[in-house]
Write a structure and sequence with these properties.
145 residues, mainly beta, two-stranded antiparallel ribbon, 1 helix, 14 strands, 42% strand
Length: 145
């Protein structure tokens, strides 16, 4: 049987300041998803607010939210990873609105992880020149260099 652990504030809203407010496990007890909330809204200012995991505990998907809206200042707000941990696709959002960035808006960046595999930040690299872009959507060849 799957299990979910929830943390709530005094107003019974999903909320936790020092970790995810919702932690979901599959029927075998393996971590399936972590979701960060602040006063009832999916929210994290210092990392992804939603993290889905593969059965092997590798990160499958990260989604960045601020105040309940998909939002990332740098890079995509939703990142899908392959089983080897390499980002394979992403979708860009600002203030809940999806957009496809133009080549001059796309910055290459490296996802920084700690020893446990948790995202601890990103490092922005120089903008990729437009002539090196085949498409305005992220591709594995571009993202996994």
């Amino acid at each position: 049987m799957a299990k979910t652990k929830e943390y709530r504030n005094g107003r019974n809203e999903l909320h936790r300041e020092d970790g995810p407010a919702v932690i979901e496990y599959d029927a075998e007890g393996k971590l399936k998803r972590e979701t960060y909330y602040s006063n009832g809204s999916i929210h994290s200012e210092d990392g992804p607010a939603l993290i889905d995991y593969y059965e092997n505990n590798g990160v499958k998907r990260e989604a960045y939210y601020i105040g309940g809206e998909l939002h990332a200042e740098v890079g995509p707000a939703i990142i899908e990873f392959d089983r080897d941990g390499c980002p394979e696709s992403g979708r860009w959002f600002r203030h809940g609105k999806e957009f496809i960035p133009s080549p001059d808006q796309v910055d290459a960046y490296m996802i920084l992880r700690d020893d446990m595999g948790m995202t601890v930040g990103t490092m922005v690299c120089p903008t990729i020149p437009a002539e090196q872009h085949e498409d305005t959507r992220m591709s594995p060849e571009w993202f996994c260099t």
